[in-house]
Amino acid sequence: MRSAHRASSRALITTAATGAVMSIALLAGAGTASAHVHVDADGAAPGSTSVLTFRVPGESETGALTTQFSVTLPNVASARTEVMPGWTARLDRDAAAGTVRSVTWTAAPSVGISSDQFALFNVSVTLPNQPTVTLPATQTYSDGTVVRWDQPPLPGGGEPEHPAPELKLTGAPAEGHEDHEQPAAPMATATAEPAAEPASARPDDTARWLAGGALVLAAVGVVVALTGRRRT
Questions:
Q1: Can you tell me the distance from the alpha carbon of 139 to that of 145, in angstroms, rounded to the nearest whole number?
Q2: What are phi and psi for residue 100, nearest 5 degrees?
Q3: Which of these, 99, 103, 64, 63, lies nearest to 87 by C-alpha position?
């Protein structure tokens, strides 16, 4: 009986271990398949200026490095890249329209993103006044391989092999800033107390009493003088 119990326990343990290994393999495979270029921006709003962050993983199966990354911009009014050691950035401007069409980062020699690394590319742009922005990207490897991240979502809502980075603008529109203005102070009512008279406008009490006393003395002097004339 003990031998049968031990054999049954070993079988259960083996089955559980096999299932765990298969689950880990499936998860690892799903993680590899789901790795793609992603864009994010905190509080991005239509018409606002935001910093777009592109997360670019290395996915070469031959060990090649990512040496160039380019993003097509929706003809934004302005753009400015962040300093990134080992990389140079170039903006493609439309001089006639006064807009920026794309930005391209290029790695210096012996610099790049390996298959077990990722890099963050930041660019500050003035976003268009729309709820969603699609930003097709191109990733170039040191062996000449070019991957274009420009595919739209599948009809059933699934994700294509190389989806285009998409940013949903969920923040408040730029023209809504006036809502944050301080409210005007309420108007004074008819029952409000009048403003206090400035100290410089009030006569000095001491001077007032002295002037009054002088007038009284002058009046007394006139009466005395008249009385004296009548007696004479």
A1: 8
A2: -115, 125
A3: 103
Q: For residues 109 and 118, is the Cβ–Cβ distance under 8 A?
A: no
Rounded to the nearest 5 degrees, what angle is found at the Cα of 231, between the Cα atoms of 226 and 232?
Answer: 100
What's the rounded Cα separation, in Å, for the pair 197 and 192? Answer: 15
Residue 91: beta bridge partners? Answer: 103
Query: What is the bridge-based pairing of β-strands 99-107 and 118-126?
Result: unpaired
pLDDT category at 92 given cuts 50, 70, 90 is very high
Beta strands in 43-127, from DSSP E residues, in sequence order: 49-57, 66-76, 79-81, 87-94, 99-107, 118-126
- Check the CA dihedral 111-112-117-122 and report its sign: positive
Fold classification of 34-171 is Immunoglobulin-like (2.60.40)
Whether the model clears a pTM of 0.85, i.e. scores above it, the answer is: no
What is the rounded distance in angstroms from the CA atom of residue 218 to the CA atom of residue 208? 16
Q: Give the CB-side neighbour count of residue 204, counting CA atoms within 13 A.
A: 4
> How is the chain split into domains, by residue range?
34-171
3-state secondary structure 53-70: EEEEECCCCCCCCEEEEE
> Does 125 or 215 have the greater pLDDT score?
125
Looking at the DSSP assignment, which residues form a beta bridge with residue 120? Answer: 55
